[in-house]
Amino acid sequence: MAEGSSVGPETLGQIQDEVRRLTVAYPKLALPTLLGDLVEVQDLTFRLLEQGRVKPLQARELYLLAGITSGMLAKASHDLGNPSAAMMQARTAFVCADNADHHAMRAWVRSLQSLISYWAGRPAEAADYADLGQTVTGNVRGTTGVWLACLSARAHALLGNGEATRAAISRAEDARAAVEPDDLDGFGGIMTFSVPRQLYYVAEATVHLGEDPALGETQAEAAVTAYRTATEDEWAFGDEAGAQTDLALARIARGEIEGAAEAVRPVLDLPIEQRNFGITSSAQRVHAALPFDAHRGGGAAAGLREEIEAFTATPTSVLVR
Q1: What is this structure's pTM?
Q2: Measured between alpha carbons, how far is 222 from 41 in angstroms, rounded to an integer?
Q3: How far is 41 from 44, CA to CA, in rounded Å?
Q4: What is the C-alpha separation between 305 and 269, in angstroms, rounded?
Q5: Residue closest to 20 by CA, chosen among 194, 236, 233, 198
Q6: Is 264 exposed, middle or buried (0-12, 13-18, 19+ CB in 10 A)?
Q7: CA–CA separation, 265 vs 260, rounded Å?
Q8: Residue 7 dihedral angles phi and psi, to the nearest 5°
Q9: Tens digit of pLDDT for each residue in 233-282?
């Protein structure tokens, strides 16, 4: 308001700083502590755009910031277990990316849509969104290209297509080798795709494909170790929990129920505010994989099954209704 009839550099700089703070905080902090700020920043960027008091270059930057914020709100809706609302926010983010004419942001939103579809139990749709994102990655040199390939691997693994899964993992490795960090990577946090996260996605794809349980266990152990030793910039509680549940699944496939319980223990100790949809869904996958046969560790499995049921009964969404 103090800068008068147009958006000045101080206003734009403040919004940039706040969006950067939120992108860095999102993977580390519980959603209830961030949701209000996300809504407020999105509202501010759209109000400034609606007022029409911005120069063309400022409008492009505001649309990019609005797209990033809308993307985080899409992720928030997903984390609260509402894929329909998540897709609506993601479409808003894509419109903003188009208005900003930002290739990397378009690809990032397609990645997000693939993620939402994957956890909503629609792996074919998840693969399609990953393919859509890859149509623009020829102009993208940042880590979003690695994310798209890893998303494709996970989706094809759930579809049982081993050849497509392995090809996608290979593309991810090639994309990582060719990465040149871009402006989205510069925001950090949720806007970049770290090496530990890549290890987690590759492990998950291998575990769900189910062709080589020993390899899946090795890869999941590598992902868990990567998160235990990750830098502050790379660490994310949700992805670490995903790697731990994948390790549990790999051990169940090898008949190691006690080892699976050890792997998933840190996940079951998470507070309610961190029990987002992806984490509770991962825990439910462990629950579904546990054997009922007493000769295969059924006694230990029964106790773990009860713990998982108690854990998933109180997700993060109960705190923000």
Answers
A1: 0.94
A2: 37
A3: 5
A4: 15
A5: 233
A6: buried
A7: 9
A8: -75, 120
A9: 999 999 999 999 999 999 999 999 999 999 999 999 999 999 999 999 99
